[in-house]
Amino acid sequence: MQQGKHAVQSRLLAWFQRLGEIAHSRERSSGRPAGTLDAQAALLLAVQGFFGAAGALSGTFVPVFLWKTSQSYALLGWYTLTQYVTSGLTFWLAGKWIKEHNKMNGLRLGVALSGGFYFAVLMLGEQAKAYMIALGVLNGVAAGLFWLAYNVVYFEITEPDNRDKFNGWAGFLGSAAGILAPWISGIVITSRQGLGGYRIIFTISLIIYGAAVILSFWLRKRKFGERYDWLHTIRQLKERGNPWRRVAPAIALQGVREGVFMFLVGLMVYVVTRSEKMVGNFSLITSLVALGAFWVTGKLLSVRNRKLIMLIGVIMISAVITVLFFGFNYTALLVFGIGTSLFMPLYTIPMTSTVFDLIGRTEESARQRVEFIVMRELMLTAGRSVGLLAYMAVVPRDDSPLAIAMLLLAVGAMPIAGWWFIRPILAAPQQTRT
């Protein structure tokens, strides 16, 4: 037994060493073929994959866990709103550290705090309902630190010619993580009485987060930036003719949808079925569809067809919501989930790629990449908060199927307006940074 354990450890160490050798053996300037990803991009995708796997394993069930312990839609809304607002503030405040100091430490701290969040939930158990605001703050800080550092590094290691491919792979890995992880979690949770299954799943997530931290040490240290501009977002939005005056509202409208959909859909599956296993089955099926959809979209999407592809995407992800008006049951939710998974990549990939291409259109904007990424998150936070306020105005007062379906349609159709705002930017090719 002990020899087998040492053998596994030796193999893991050799694997990590090999990753490090590959990562350091190639520089991005060494003649990377157009449209391909280098070793650093692959490593960042691996870190994101670990982070996503841990989140898929436990994050899918956090709203269910908190709702079960509190039986309160309003309290769950306050937790989620606190998480969103804290994440946005963390982006803005931590921007100075990420730009002027070691952004890799920010990424690692974000992963570590995510593990700390699940450890806190694990320790609190049924008492978590009394600490929902504090838990929202902790999760928000963790998410803010990780995604700020991740997005900055992502921008630095990709170019317009391979950004769609990277985003396609990122979505592919996220979907892959969402296939088995929630399904396994649902089986484990329902097989144990009380909260025993949740304890097992949260513990496994802690271990995966630890592996993500270790893997991140093979990502190269990035160059430090210039001084951080605290008022950058305000200056961009005040300047006449600035393209960010069209992009910012498009991002905010994306956030309106995310603010509700990121937690309410899975919760509704549980409320309808009263089974974590069915929540896992729902995630398994929809993630399988998303896996293929992200892979195909990443292959076919190009700068030339982003405008049309994104228009199709926003129309279809809005149209599939209408199925919920014909019956608010597991079958209807599953049809809605499959449709959303099928068409969501047509919206998210061109949206993300276009925003980051705009950041890198000139040398000056590329130098301010941290501020632009902070600006993007602030817009998302504003939108998510609006979506959450709409949820809190409706669901705690009326949780009928019709009210929830109308809420989902109202916030779910916001990306159509977002496409209208951003369409001139989608049609204009972005200049490659030097």
Automatic annotation (TrEMBL):
Report the coiled-coil segments: none
Q: Name one Pfam family in it.
A: MFS_1
Q: Where does the record say this protein resides?
A: Cell membrane
Chain ranges passing through the membrane:
42-67, 73-94, 106-124, 130-154, 166-188, 200-219, 247-272, 278-296, 308-328, 334-358, 378-396, 402-422
Give the top-rank taxon of the lineage listed in the UniProt record for this protein.
Bacteria
Q: Does the keyword Transmembrane helix apply?
A: yes
Topology of this chain in the membrane: Multi-pass membrane protein
Q: Which UniProt keywords apply?
A: Membrane, Transmembrane, Transmembrane helix
Please give the name of this protein.
Answer: MFS transporter
